[in-house]
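Known limitations

Files may contain more than one protein. Parsers should not assume a single record per file. Below, a two-record file is shown to illustrate correct handling: read the sequence, read the token line, then continue until end of file.
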Amino acid sequence: MKKLFALALVLCMLMGTSASAESAETVIVLSDDQITVDGSAITEDTSAPVHLARVIETHEDVPENLKDVENRVVTITDGGVYRLSGTASDIQIAVKAGDDDDVRLILDNVDLTCRTASVIAIYSAHDPRIAGEYGVTIELAAGSDNRITGSHNSAEDPEPEFDGAIGSQVSLGFEGSGSLTVDADNEGVEVAGGHMTINGGVFHISACDDPLNVSEDGVGVLTVNDGYLYSAVKPLEGGEGDGIDSNGWIVFNGGTAINLAHPASGDGGIDSDMGSSINGGVIVGAGNMYDPIESASGQLFMMLEFGQATNDLVVVTDAQNQPVFAYDFPHDYMYIAFSTPDLKDGETYHVYLGGEIEGTVQDGLYTAITSYVPGTQMQHGDGNARQRMTMAAPDMGGLQPGGNVPEMPQGGFGGQAPDMGGQFDMNAYMAALAQLDLNELLKGADLNELLKGKDLNSLLTGFAVTDLLTDDQIKAVFGDTDISILDRGGRGMGGGFGGPRGMESSADVATTDFVLTKDNTGFTNVVAAE
């Protein structure tokens, strides 16, 4: 009996030791006066797992008045859990861990600024290279309020380029229940290699370019599973940027995500090169470019193409005149997409601009609506639709390891890439396009009628030849070249492969009934009802 008790005691001690080791944290406290690691001043000995370096950025994007600024770089080289707190300026957290090292950064009330480079720069660590998984975690501590104000740097050999206030060269995940505000002078949070996954937290990200970006072409998957996300491009003159962007895929599985593009550029609220899917959550996207959402999405969504850009309150009511969606847009947008679990297949909805509404509002999104007095009722259709030229990208197989599409999370695209065809001769198409004489082809055409309801600024960023020419004219110019691929979605002229695709008219005759089904989610020429 004593032997059994002794054995149990040893096992408990071993388990306790193991649990203690797993929960051990390195505590880093930051300030402008000093930096401490577990209570002691940080060392500049580069052999230490956490050490200090001092760097003056010399890249071309550094303004003249900041060329002498010295950044203190807190460098982490080992796997483990690191809790950061405090307020500091001209500081960077750099992760340069081994390929087998998992790193967790717990942000616990930090306010960090770096004027000439990324505030958090993740160079290396473990990367499983599977969508939805990651070796580096940024955790927002419960009850914490964190702020990152950061810049970016240019590519300098042999160092990789970091475009965002938070940048990573490996897959990155966000967890926790605290809040994070990011104010960026270029991109907000960018993963240049691998995937980004959001599993929790409250985010407000404003940037001069894409607030959230996964930029590995044809590979990266940006997944939102939970949390609250508000990502918006700053409305600066001459600016651009998508509300949320991926050079691979975007998958929304839950949470709340509001994604606003630059209001004066041809960018989309939800922009992906390989496809976007909505399987759950409350999702809003607004921009001035049509970015298709997969019809195979697990949750219904609605896409509204307005005849004129609007910055008004948009309210959608169901057959019982109860609001199912209400958002007060801060800027003018042409394309507005949204999805909520309340949308029902086959339901008839009505769309209004303005009116009087009461309820809980956050960042323009109304929930728990108690009353609504309708404003201007809207109609759609009338045979008008904005058609734009789109071209398919070449086969993406060579850009991916082994030529395979990464496995998607549950509810994604099942590992299947969009069919690129292969019969389309791009050289022949471009040669034929170069020979177009629009003056001759459009001689005698009534341009006022032809361009009725179309936004010229958007149209000229990528018009559709099929929208301007008759079938006989297309035959005369392109001969037997198969141009049907131009009507396939998602690979366009604006912004990588994720350019605009034309929406077919939602109705030949104008109607105020917006009948939503899985195969009928887009509504064109949304204007005030006559």
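...continuing to the second record:
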Amino acid sequence: MIIKELYLKNFGKFNGTYCSLDEHMQVFYGENEYGKSTIYAFIKAMLFGMERGRGRAAGKDEFSRYEPWENPNYYAGEMRFVCGDRTFCLKRHFDRYGRNAVLYCEDDGEELSVEDGDLQMLLGGITLGAFENTAAIGQLTARPGQTLAEELKNYAANYYASGSSEVDLKCAVDTLKERKKTTEKAIKKCVETQKQELEKLQVAEQYMKNDMAKLQENAAQEKKKLLTLQESRRSESDCKHEQGEFLTEGKQSLTGAVSGGLPRAGVLLCILGTLLLTAGVLKNFTGNPWFYSIPWFVLPAGAAILAAGILSCLAGRKYTRKKSGDSFRTSSGEDAKKAVAAQNEIERAEWELQRIYGQLTEKQIELGNIQEQKEELLVPGDAQRRLEERKEALELAMEHLTACASKMTEQFGERLNREASQILAEVTEGKYTRLFVGDNLQLSVFCGGNHISVEQLSRGTVEQIYFALRMAALNLLYEEKIPVIFDDAFGCYDEKRLKSTLKWLSNQDRQVIIFTCQRREQEIIEMLKRK
């Protein structure tokens, strides 16, 4: 990629400013406040866009820093660049209301989409973070950040695992992590739903047990009541039986007394009266002297006694019938009513008891169903088991990918060490020929038979080591030749180091853009061009 032309329509202090760039090495020289950093920020904004910060950070971000001095609502620029032998034009509006980006090929008029990633594809997939850690080097910022370490590890895993850097294993691991999070949320939701259902069933179970306890209490009361009624009925039956026997005996005694006493007396009186009456008659008609001894009043007395006997017999029979009938009618009516009432009470008690037992049976069945549902909820369901299995599979895949990436990074480290060591040897003119890159970009050099940590070296040498690492990473990570930009990055370089570094850059097939407030970079480049 080669940047051909910049047009700062309205960006920072510049308004309608054109800048044409050399295809190989371009130096922007100027004193402070010349606008070098503004042009550098414009290149980054055109390549990667510019987002406005939020909150307090919005007042100090690059969007606010390079907002146009005049007419801030018109915040825009253009860039022309060559990529793959084709010339493209990129137009951007950065203002908060009309922000957009247009990209098209000037050779055939084909319009591309920045939002869909066409520009990033032309840049070889490099991101803003990776660009700032490799191709863009500012003043006293030569040390690459953690982003570069992650990029290198990811590239190593991709390249050695698939034979191509196009397969992003880090992205794959991140995708697996997101899927794991989604799966864990689904599992958590299942567990919470299961817990809520279990709590509902526990409440229903307690209510059911309380209802059953009340029904059992009611059943005990009704059973006790029924037993009391049945016992009372049996007692009344026995009493009436005894009373019946007593009445029968009394009735027999009374009947015997009346029918046996009065009729018998009446019969005797009738017999006596008859005899007396016969004696009186014989006296009157026979004239027998024996009969003359019988008093004259015997005849009337006999008649009277006979009549009294007949009346006694009749009175005894009538009295017996009356007593017997009255006693039967009185006892039978009252007993029948009491018996019917008692039987009705017993039947009602039996029916109520059966009803309570029926409700208890239904409650018992419902309680059994609730307890079965609780047991089922205590065991993870099919959906939850599938989610658990999926989570285990994702964890296993992540583990294998991570192990693979770690192993491949070790192999890639050797390649990175060779590339960076070769660059460092050239820019230090053979003083340091071996650079070792450890985990998280822990750096050391081999000199005089010893490993020396970068913290023990001078600031200028450290800057060259970081420069070598950045350039090696840039060569290994991205096939597209992204321009290298230096913004007052050589302040710690002496003349010798600067000359060797610029010489190495001039031999690379890559566009180099240098922003500086010193003339020595321009002078060295012109000298190198003459050679």
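Parsers that stop after the first record will miss the second one. For reference, the second record is described as follows. Residues 159-167, 253-262, 290-294 have pLDDT under 50 and may be disordered.
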